[in-house]
Amino acid sequence: MTEATNTPRQLPAIGEPRLLPLATPQPSAAEVARRRQLGRRAQVLAGVSVSYNVVEAGVAIAAGTVSGSVALVGFGLDSIVEVASGLIILWQFRSPMPETRERRALRLIALSFFGLALYVSIESVRSLLTGSTPDSSTVGIGLAIASLIVMPVLSAAQRRTGKALQSNAVVADGTQTLLCTYLSAVLLVGLVLNATLGWSWADPIAGLVIAAIALREGIQAWQGKGCCAPNSTAHACEDGCC
Length: 242
What we know:
Blueprint: H1 29-67, H2 70-92, H3 102-130, H4 138-165, H5 168-197, H6 202-222
Helix pairs in contact: 1-2, 1-4, 2-3, 2-5, 2-6, 3-5, 3-6, 4-5, 5-6
């Protein structure tokens, strides 16, 4: 008769924590439904942004071309960048898993910022060197005022939705809209100074400010930071964009 041998079980030492198998938490049905709702809201806001900026770009570029205002043309080109940004968000959330397109969406938004900054910088410097004098533009002034009213509301809704979705791309799209608010203020100052005091240099200077802001936002989008990005370790927004 053979004696059965049993392999002794190794028990954890006294006081040693037991290692339990890791379980991946599954989102609840309510959480899945909420994210779908937020995804649809992000698409609606992107669609509103695209529609508004198509009109804004057409008016700004036409008025800027007629008056010779590099700042106004640059503002119109920024509107085209915002159209591209909104379309990128729509493309991202057409995917069943939009998270997989997050990084690519941010890179595309960043590249659009860089293109805007390069063009406006070149045109602004050229305008300063040649001493060109843009005509006053009542249409441009009215457009800048309208954007100062519309854009802050749209940007706040986009950034709230992006942070709720934990999507840096949606937050970056909202930052683009917020950038339009800043650019509207810069554009308005430049156009008013040119129209009232005849300071023609104010227009290309405003263009350079627009280019600098666009470059900064492009770098942040490329790095995946964005304005008040959800994954940021900071608990407070230092630049007031929140």
